[in-house]
Amino acid sequence: MSPDIPDYSPPPAKAFTLATDLDGTFLGGSEADRRALYSWIDAHRDAVELIFVTGRDLAFIEDSCAAGVMPWPDFVVGDVGTTIAKHDPQNGLMIPDGRLEAHIARLWGEGIGPLASILDAAPGITPQDGVFRYRMSYHYNPQAFDPAIKPAIEEAGFDCLISDNRFLDVLPKGVSKGPSLMRLLEWLETPRHRVLVAGDTLNDLSLFETGLKGVAVGNSEPALIERITHRANVHFASAHGAAGIWEAIRVLGFYDIAANAANTNKEALV
Ligand SMILES: [Mg+2]
Q1: What is the CATH number of domain 104-172?
Q2: Which residues in 112-128 are b (16+ Cβ under 10 Å) and which e?
Q3: Topology of 16-98+175-269 in CATH?
Q4: Quick check: 101 and 83 in contact, CB under 8 A?
Q5: Segments making up each domain of the chain, as ranges
Q6: Across-strand partners of 213?
Q7: SS (H, E, C) the chain
């Protein structure tokens, strides 16, 4: 076992794990679409493990969940895969797990160093608001961007991820949503066939590359679809956002898995 595993035991396994992106995916679709999905999750919470896999930071998730915008997740793979955190229901916080994140911190080291001033002066990117721990994130303007910047970032030893034609992330090499989710699932000992990943833009590509069953929601950006169109593990939903996830839960059989597990749990309580 890796010395970086957490110093507490993983929670008991649940029948179905939904590992979903937020913007455009879990938060996408109509208000009615979101309510339908969130109500089903709430009603089957003993059978459904919820993991957010997002570019958002923990503060956004804590605020949104506390305000009732979406259900609390059990875990978060946040900051484009550079944060791995667990929900602490006692105080309504998401707590980063230093052991699960240890390899990310090692890879990031002292940060981007001299690259920072190059990126500050680069056309077509401006720093996003927020305090970043193991990444740097920028607003991206494709018309003004100098394409030579991307290889410069990679030559400096980092990954450069452009998604939705709006965002540019500088990440520790090899770290993204998919690998960090796999690290979490490995610790949780979650059977792979019980997992559904969901996304809509290129920063979700690494989720689909894990080989886990996935859903690209109907509003996915064409650049993502182009990269995963050949993948047999992906369901290409016609419905948008939360309704696309709901479509995949039913089509791929997770609805029945969760319903059966919920019934079994109820019987066990009788
Ligand atoms: Mg998204």
Answers
A1: 3.90.1070.10
A2: beebeeebeebebbeeb
A3: Rossmann fold (3.40.50)
A4: yes
A5: 16-98+175-269, 104-172
A6: 196
A7: CCCCCCCCCCCCCCCEEEEECHHHHHCCCCHHHHHHHHHHHHHCCCCEEEEEECCCCHHHHHHHHHCCCCCCCCEEEEHHHCEEEEEECCCCEEEECCCCCHHHHHHHCCCCCCHHHHHHHCCCEEECCCCCCCCEEEEECCCCCCCCHHHHHHHCCEEEEEECCCEEEEEECCCCHHHHHHHHHHHHCCCHHHEEEEECCHHHHHHHCCCCEEEECCCCCHHHHHHHCCCCCEEECCCCHHHHHHHHHHHCCHHHHHHHHHHHHHHHHC
255 C-alpha to center of ligand 1: Å?
23
pTM for the full model?
Answer: 0.93
Per-residue pLDDT of the chain (270 residues; tens, 9 = 90+): 455 677 778 888 899 999 999 999 999 999 999 999 999 999 999 999 999 999 999 999 999 999 999 999 999 999 999 999 999 989 889 999 999 999 999 999 999 999 999 999 999 999 999 889 999 999 999 999 999 999 999 999 999 999 889 999 999 999 999 999 999 999 999 999 999 999 999 999 999 999 999 999 999 999 999 999 999 999 999 999 999 999 999 999 999 999 898 777 666 655
Q: Output the CA 22–ligand 1 centroid distance in Å.
A: 6
The CA 55 to ligand 1 mean position distance, Å, reads 8
Q: How far apart are the CA of 81 and the centre of ligand 1, in A?
A: 13
For residue 160, the CA-to-ligand 1 centroid distance in Å is 17
Nearest-angstrom CA–CA distance, 51 and 198: 10
Across the strands, what pairs with 185? none
